[in-house]
């Protein structure tokens, strides 16, 4: 991630915090990031030297004008400064700053079937304490190869209580 992305994210984070809009800004940033990831030609179009600056502003306003004004303004500034390629890094850094301020950590939970809200809450409270956070924002990924149990990834840490991993350990013990 570039220093520019970090600076833009910090500025946006501070503005959103002052105006009590951090949740809305984060949601809109995730949508913007998704739009750029799913439509790479959009970034190509907005980066084209053939388009004039006011045409780029109009496209950005038409696409993202319904969102948060701070996100829209940031996109306009990035367009003017030819930095729209920094959007993904800005979103990642903004989410990191917001999570740190709220004591939240993102986690991916792999399970055989979808987690219930109660299961999500239990996993969040148990593992958040283990890593010194207030709570976890859980993304649930269905993985039938686990056979049963869970695999939890928080940052670069993995907690694995899946049946498939227990079977693999047992197999290694029996063979070794």
From TrEMBL:
Record's bilayer topology term: Peripheral membrane protein
Name of the protein described by the UniProt record: ATP synthase subunit delta
Location of this chain's protein in the cell: Cell membrane; Membrane
Family (UniProt): Belongs to the ATPase delta chain family.
Keywords, sorted A to Z: ATP synthesis, Cell membrane, CF(1), Hydrogen ion transport, Ion transport, Membrane, Transport
Signal peptide annotation: none
InterPro entries xref list: ATP_synth_OSCP/delta_N_sf, ATPase_OSCP/d_CS, ATPase_OSCP/dsu
Function description: This protein is part of the stalk that links CF(0) to CF(1). It either transmits conformational changes from CF(0) to CF(1) or is implicated in proton conduction.
Gene name tied to this protein: atpH
């Amino acid at each position: 991630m570039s220093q520019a992305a970090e600076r833009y994210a910090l500025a946006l984070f501070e503005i959103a915090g002052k105006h009590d809009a951090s949740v809305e800004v984060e949601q809109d940033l995730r949508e913007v990031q998704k739009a750029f990831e799913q439509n790479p030609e959009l970034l190509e179009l907005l980066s084209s030297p053939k388009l004039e600056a006011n045409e780029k502003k109009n496209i950005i306003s038409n696409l993202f004008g319904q969102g948060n004004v701070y996100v829209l303004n940031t996109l306009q500034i990035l367009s003017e400064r030819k930095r729209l390629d920094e959007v993904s890094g800005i979103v990642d850094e903004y989410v990191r700053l917001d999570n740190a301020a709220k004591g939240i950590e993102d986690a991916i939970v792999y399970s055989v079937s979808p987690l219930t809200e109660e299961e999500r809450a239990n996993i969040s409270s148990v593992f958040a304490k283990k890593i010194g956070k207030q709570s976890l924002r859980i993304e649930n990924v269905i993985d039938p190869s686990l056979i049963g149990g869970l695999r939890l990834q928080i940052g670069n840490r993995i907690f694995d209580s899946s049946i498939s991993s227990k079977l693999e350990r047992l197999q290694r013990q029996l063979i070794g």
